[in-house]
Amino acid sequence: MTSWFQLASVFSMLSLLAVGGGSAVLPEMQTLLHQHFNFSQTEFVHAYSVGQLAPGPNMLAVLIMGEMIDGILGAFIVALAFFIPSSILCLYAGRLWTHIGDTPWRHCLQQALEPISIGLMCSGVYTIAKESLVNWQSCAVALVVGLLLLKTKINPVILILGAGLLGFLSAYVTS
Question: What's the CA gap between 114 and 132, in Å, rounded?
């Protein structure tokens, strides 16, 4: 059984580091899960991918990771640890943001945070891509899905399910 305090401390720290959204902490999350809970990179990508299918916030994947580490109680602990600290921080930061109004300091801070957030999100994409794009077929599927998302209004869930079906069929045909 995993230390519940360790589980809560890892995910609450990640919660407070999630500047720009949950995907910004994916590289650190993958590293910490491997160090503290022997969570492989493949398990991480699988949990994250399944979590993307769930409706709601895109970081519901942390619940799957918590469940894989320590069952239903692990998922509950991770849910509280990952969502409560950042929610409290956002509440107070939002109040401060409103309070400082339209000052030059606010504009300067906002301009500084935008590229930082984009860089952190790109590092999250890289973390998932380096384990997922393993052959030309997976690269082709990623490219086609990316282009379809940019050029059409197709629901991403349909693309995810379609790519999953394509992967299943290709594995079935080759075996």
Answer: 27
The encoded tokens of residue 72 equal 């239903």
The residue among 43, 35, 34, 42 whose CA lies nearest residue 68 is 43
Give the CA diameter of the chain: 63
- Burial class from Cβ neighbours inside 10 Å (0-12, 13-18, 19+) for residue 59 reads buried
Full pLDDT tens readout for the chain, 175 residues:
468 999 999 999 999 888 767 788 889 999 999 999 999 988 998 898 888 877 777 788 999 999 999 999 999 999 999 999 989 998 998 898 888 888 888 888 889 888 988 888 888 888 888 888 888 888 998 899 899 999 999 998 888 888 888 878 888 887 6
Distance CA 169, CA 154 (A): 22
> With contact defined as beta carbons under 8 Å apart, do 39 and 139 qualify?
no
